Design the sequence.
């Protein structure tokens, strides 16, 4: 038997990988414990100090190649960074967008765009944390979005609206998807969409307006309005009309990355619930002796382990350059549900104390729930599996 692997194989290391990265992130998170995140949550504030610490440590430039000032790490390593933030009780939402939007610029941006922006982002002098896709009237039906970008000489003029654009008030750059050819003038509905890298520093007050949205979780989310915003023509990423394909191209990476966050949440919930169940004494015995407490936590642990195996498979396939749409979607589904079930078990284990903010459980529980809705909903993943994996008729 030949022990050498062919180029089509993907190797999965089942030991805890990237120990130095994990330990480095844990050290940073030790300076940003529950009280820090609770205060931000109460004030609906942006984690500036945390983002600064992660930037200075080089973690936010993980996926930027070394030639542009980054560390050029694999996708799995970037996912581990996000996982450890969540496993430590924090929230990486202010950092993950910069990681997965980076792929669109890296794969489809011009060399001039990469030379201009990536070193500045890697150094922390620029933030790319806003991603303008979703609109209030079209939701996940992206091909029917109404934001228009019309070429006018050396510029594009943009009109429209985006919603759930998190961190727009704290970002310097926005990756924006807009229609450059009307829907009724294209052969396929996926045509005529283009991606732009918008310099928000010049845009705000000159055709761009940002309004915060108060929400259940502190993701600093907003709605963004475009009214005759004029941007340079060289803001276009890749070819005009190819934007939908560019966005799809980065979705596997996005789903793998955010799945790591859910995995970290699940681990935090299981660890927190197990510890409390062993320490909390009611009726003269630890409540963890009761199978009604044990079994939900044990089941959540099993779901977490299964989700991690699928996630490692997805990351390994991605790094090997192999198709991983099924695995990326399954990772997103399994990890988000593992986090939710672990959160439920943790809530039940703590009883009334779970609702007390000082325990951080209700905050993490709220944050974990969003992963079942965004950046892709559970139902859309199931529809993908039914159609593209199981061969059933398209449902939408």
Sequence:
């Amino acid at each position: 038997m030949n022990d050498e692997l062919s180029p089509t194989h993907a190797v999965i290391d089942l030991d805890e990988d990237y120990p130095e990265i994990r330990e480095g992130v844990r050290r940073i998170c030790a300076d940003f414990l529950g009280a820090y995140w609770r205060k931000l949550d109460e004030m609906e504030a942006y984690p500036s100090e945390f983002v600064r610490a992660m930037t200075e440590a080089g973690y936010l430039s993980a996926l930027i190649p070394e030639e542009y000032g980054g560390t050029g790490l694999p996708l799995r390593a970037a996912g581990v960074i996000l996982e450890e933030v969540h496993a430590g009780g924090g929230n990486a939402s202010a950092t993950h967008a910069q990681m997965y939007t980076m792929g669109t610029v890296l794969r489809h941006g011009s060399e001039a765009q990469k030379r201009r922006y990536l070193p500045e982002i890697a150094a922390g002098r620029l933030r790319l944390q806003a991603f303008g896709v979703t609109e209030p009237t079209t939701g996940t039906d992206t091909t029917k979005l109404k934001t228009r970008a019309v070429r006018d000489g050396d510029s594009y003029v943009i009109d429209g609206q985006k919603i759930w654009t998190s961190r727009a008030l704290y970002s310097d750059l926005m990756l924006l998807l807009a229609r450059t050819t009307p829907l009724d003038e294209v052969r396929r509905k996926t045509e005529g969409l283009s991606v732009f890298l918008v310099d928000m520093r010049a845009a705000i007050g000159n055709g761009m307006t940002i309004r915060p949205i108060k929400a259940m979780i502190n993701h600093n989310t907003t709605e963004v309005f475009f009214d005759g915003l004029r941007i340079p023509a060289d803001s276009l990423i890749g070819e005009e009309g190819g934007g939908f394909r560019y966005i799809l191209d980065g979705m596997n990476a996005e789903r793998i990355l955010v799945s790591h966050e859910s995995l970290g949440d699940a681990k935090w919930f299981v660890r927190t619930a197990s510890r409390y169940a062993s320490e909390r004494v009611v009726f003269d015995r630890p409540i963890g002796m009761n199978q009604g407490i044990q079994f939900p936590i044990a089941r959540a642990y099993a779901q977490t382990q299964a989700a991690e195996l699928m996630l490692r498979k997805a990351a390994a396939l991605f790094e090997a350059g192999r198709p991983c749409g099924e695995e990326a979607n399954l990772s997103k589904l399994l990890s988000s549900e593992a986090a939710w079930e672990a959160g439920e078990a943790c809530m039940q284990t703590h009883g009334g104390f779970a609702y007390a903010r000082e325990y951080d459980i209700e905050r993490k529980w709220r944050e974990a729930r969003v992963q079942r809705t965004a950046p892709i909903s559970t139902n859309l993943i199931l529809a993908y599996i039914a159609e593209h994996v199981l061969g059933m008729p398209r449902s939408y």
About this structure: DSSP finds 13 helices and ten strands in the chain.
